Write the structure tokens for this entry.
Amino acid sequence: MTSSLISRNATLVGRAATLTTLVAALLAPAAASAQTITRGPYLQKPTTTSIVVRWRTDTASDSRVEWGAAAGSLGNVASDATVTTEHSIAVTGLSPGTTYTYAVGTTTTRLGGDDTDHRFTTLPTPGTRQPIRIWTYGDSGYANAAHTATRDAYFAYSGANPSDATDVWLMLGDNAYFLANDVNYQTAVFDFYEDFMRREVLWSVLGNHEFYGGNTSATQTGPYFSMFDFPSARESGTNGVASGTEAYYSFDYGNIHFVILDSMDSSRAVGSAMLTWLEQDLTATTADWTIAAWHHPPYSKGQYHDSDTEVNEIEMRANVVPLLEDYGVDLVVSGHSHSYERTPLIDGHAGLSDTLDASMLLDTGSGAPDTDGAYRKADTGQAPNQGAVFVVAGSAADARPFIPVEGHRLMASKLVSYGTMVLEVDGDTLEGHFLGHEGDILDSFRIEKGTARCPASPPSGCLASGKSGLVAKQGANDASDSLTYRWTGAELPAADVGDPSAESDLGLCVWDASGLLVDSALPPDAVATYEVAALATKLWVTDPEKPGLFLYKETTGAADGLRFAKVQTGAKGLMLVRGKGTALALPTSPWTLPVTAQIVARDTGVCFESVFAEAKKNDSTKFIAKATAD
């Protein structure tokens, strides 16, 4: 009996021990699962010597970034002991314009990186003149087939390493639909561009759908302001001034000053905080180029977005555009309308579309280098009121028709096509290409700066004339001054002249021994008003029965006083230009010999020259000279 009881107690004790072990196992903390990156890493707020690396994890921990010159040699570390799922580390002590490899994780575990997919490049020193590529587009908020196609078209265009070919990546608002909140940004931006964001900084403007997503500019609160770090304290450049807000700001990349404005949730009124800052910022910059970006386009006839009726667009055009023009803005890019629209080189169009007149069109051509020539701005840097091009690039993920069907009458190009904008800046030249979703370039333009029509002294290498004559008459007043220059040659190749009615302007330059006397040019395609019906009033005309003959004629002398031109290409070449009136700006004679006259075909770069070593008459009323080639 005693033995049986002992055996029973031993069994009970064994069972109790087993139960205790089981309970202890159930109550013990679960083994920690591996931490996972759920967003990023992605790059923000670059400077010449620093950058911010951000990422999100599924569980909270401290943060660490390692970096170095190349994969496998990450000898530098920055850490933050704060336990969080939203990790942000400022990497400092870097060199300008330098590429680094990095890795992210905790102080004990590396979660990703140390390979060619995890690299960043610091900003070049402001003012550096180097080739710069900008990829920009708006309204990309759908992770759909169209957006996939436009993204992949750009990646194919950029080669094997798109991030290496991209210097500035700028989204123009409505980056996520319908509500631009954290969840939709994850789908349309962070997941969609996961690999690209590891290597390229994303800049952005605030769109109306960001506003719908709970983002407020006044308080800088909401998911948009939480997920991005923009340089409100002027960290990303030495030009401009601090805005004090991430709703609008500026930054520099090389010789370009970027101005990012808020057309949605900040006041657009004259005297408002944004416009006050904008003028201070533009006053302070010394960059070669100024590019401005905001969401609502000042000129557009999108299906749901008409710049003649939408308050945001009207106020940006009336209050912001004139200020930018006064400080020499070169290019403005916007989204909002789901289409592609591009103006020619314009200045001074602050009213509704029906207020457009010819004086606002500084060059009515397409700006395409291979057709009617680049848009030219005489001065470099921040020269006021020399014209800007305005682009609507809002069809990265959706394309809609124009209302009315012909669109805004200002546009040099307008397309209902999926695509994104590629900008190439090199020194004093900017080229823009609208890249379609199938990889084809659907529109191109070029802006050239520092192209003063006539240099201070005659350039060499021009084609000498066979016979030539120059007559300048000093009238009783400036309005009656006149000038005629005639150049003839044994042959005038059509390729040397191009098409003066379509390609960029013919320049007329005259110098004497003391310097430049006449600096003038004929526009490529002057019309009374920029409308389809007005195209019949072209001032350049051709004669189908006389191949190679081009004639220019108008009565006001609006083009620098020039009123008539005749160009005949072929075996017996002829160039004849006549001008009259105050706009000719004819200096008083006598002139100091020798006198040199040139006609310059700006698009081909060929010049045609006569040198007058003697004058038949050279007094206070006339200069008359003839020359014959030796």
